[in-house]
Amino acid sequence: MHAAILARFVVLEARRSGLPWLVAASIAAGLGLAAFLSQVAVTESLELQTAIVAALLRACGVFLVAAQVVTSTQRERDDKGLELMLSLPLSRSAYYLGRLAGFAACGAVVAACFALPLLLWSPPQAVLLWALSLGAETALMAAAAMFFSVVLVQLVPAAAATAGMYLLARSIGAIQAIAGGPLAEPSLPQQLARWSVDAVGLLLPRLDSVTRTDWLIYGSPALGAYGAALAGLALYALLLVAAGLFDFHRRNL
Amino acid sequence: MTRDERPLAAVPRWVWFSLALALAAQIAWQIARPQTPRAASDLPPPPAPGMLRLASFGEPAAAARLAMLYLQSFDLRAGNDIPYRDLDYRRLIGWLRAILAIDPRSQYPLFAAARIYAENPDPRKARAALEFVYQEFLKDPNRRWRWLAHAALLAKYRLKDLPLALRYATAIERLTTAPDVPLWAKQMRVFILEDMDELQAAKVMLGGLLASGQIKDPAELRFLKQHLEQLEARIKARNARREAE
């Protein structure tokens, strides 16, 4: 119950902090950019518009939600809201999970808004799967941003760590493919580098396999693969929540 | 104005002046800056597909299309009477290959190769673009046949290279298996053989096509039967001419 109230306050804060305007501006920017680029394309102009708008809105969605989490957590700490909350009969877990649920709800709303313009070019089923995936991705990044905000305390390190993790998680598949390519030398340093990359890969979610633009262009994914990709996100979100709660409970406030 | 702001009159005049001056200088600087379009020689070496995939941050479909827009901006300035004439086609094809590798279902690189870059007046460059289309067709014939069909037409009418056109038409006929590949594409080989005066081979192929039962449309069936009869008449006339000689 306490957690639900906290989640509602987080959503209210996001609504009043200008997030809706930023969402609208992102959609307008995406549509404008797509309209411009489609004028230069000599073929596949509809696919180009879909790809550009989807890729841009995906990045914007994750950025807006992560930035909202980091700044809101920082403000809560600076305004001594955290101390006030914890002086009430409220467990640390309820506080942490309640706020995270609020941020995840913000992410779901952002994903739904960003999916609407894609209905101009793509079939509704593909857009629905894309939107659900974006909702899960923003929830995961909200968990990551909250974890880093709690652990690193300062705003800039938390934002940088969140952005770094996101970019790495989206490119780790390509990095592993390069490291394990047939042209790589079979030497010991190369093997070490490859093992290191594989080890990093084990600790990251595979964000390159979710919210894919090609679902919108070439048709919906196989439901088995889609479900497996989202299950991977859920598992990693669980890991982040557990790690965040662990640190939050240990912290001496 | 809110209670946190002071009135505009509170800003010193020299600050107003500096702001206006800096803004005017910025605009003047940008206007004076020469706008140099990218020339053909500016095309950098192609990236490895793995690097391009890495730079796409998991968005290969969007990255492939953006890379195509980037690529087609080279040597395409206003007043350029023959676009893409001076491009280094080895680099260009490397780029097209890398882009197709990260999004193999996109038709954009093949469209550009067959319809834009193969139109180059330099026959060596046109052939290089057509060869790229042929090589990529071999990897996915059922999806990419239309670009090789266009390449066959270019080889026949623009390059006047009938053996090359025949090679492409033969590949389409032999390697495509999808039911949506139209018969005109599969029949190209007949007409090219005919143009090469290989009447007997054309007759055998056309007869085989009719006997296979693949053609269902009555009008098309009638047209091809008439064509077969004409071919037989031409063969007969040629044989008679040879005997007379």
Task: Pick out its properties.
heterodimer, A: 253 residues, mainly alpha, B: 245 residues, 2 domains, 0% strand, elongated
Mean of all residue-level pLDDT scores of chain B: 84
Tally of strands of chain B: 0
Rg over alpha carbons of chain B: 29 Å
- Please report the two chains with the greatest interface, counting residues with C-beta closer than 8 angstroms to the partner's C-beta: A-B, 30 and 26 residues
Euclidean distance between termini CA atoms of chain A? 24 Å
Main sheet of chain A?
none
Oligomer state of the chains in this structure: heterodimer
Count of DSSP strands of chain A? 0
- The outline of chain A comes out as globular
Helix amount of chain A: over 70%
Q: Please mark out the parts of chain B with pLDDT under 50 across 5 or more consecutive residues, or reply none.
A: none
Could you tell me the strand content of chain B as a percent range? under 5%
Strand content of chain A: under 5%
Would you write up a description of this structure?
The complex is a heterodimer of chains A (253) and B (245). By secondary structure, chain A is an all-alpha fold. Chain A has one domain. In chain A, 81% of the residues lie in helices and 0% in strands. Chain A has 10 helices and no strands. In chain A, helix 3 runs antiparallel to helix 5, helix 6 (124-152) packs across helix 7 (155-179) and helix 6 (124-152) runs parallel beside helix 10. The longest helix of chain A is centred in the N-terminal third of the chain and has 34 residues, at 45-78. Chain A starts with a helix and ends with a helix. Chain B is mainly α and 245 residues long. Chain B has 2 domains: 41-176; 197-245. Helices cover 67% and strands 0% of the residues of chain B. Chain B has 11 helices and no strands. Chain B has helices at 13-32, 49-55, 60-72, 89-102, 108-116, 123-139, 141-157, 162-175, 183-195, 199-211, 218-244. The longest helix of chain B is centred in the C-terminal third of the chain and has 27 residues, at 218-244. In chain B, 32% of the residues are buried. The model of chain B has no long low-confidence stretch (mean pLDDT 84). The A-B interface holds A 37, 40-44, 47-48, 51-52, 54-55, 58, 167, 170-171, 173-175, 177-178, 181, 207-209, 212-214, 217-218 and B 50-51, 53-54, 56-62, 65-66, 68-69, 72-73, 103, 105-108, 111-112, 115-116.
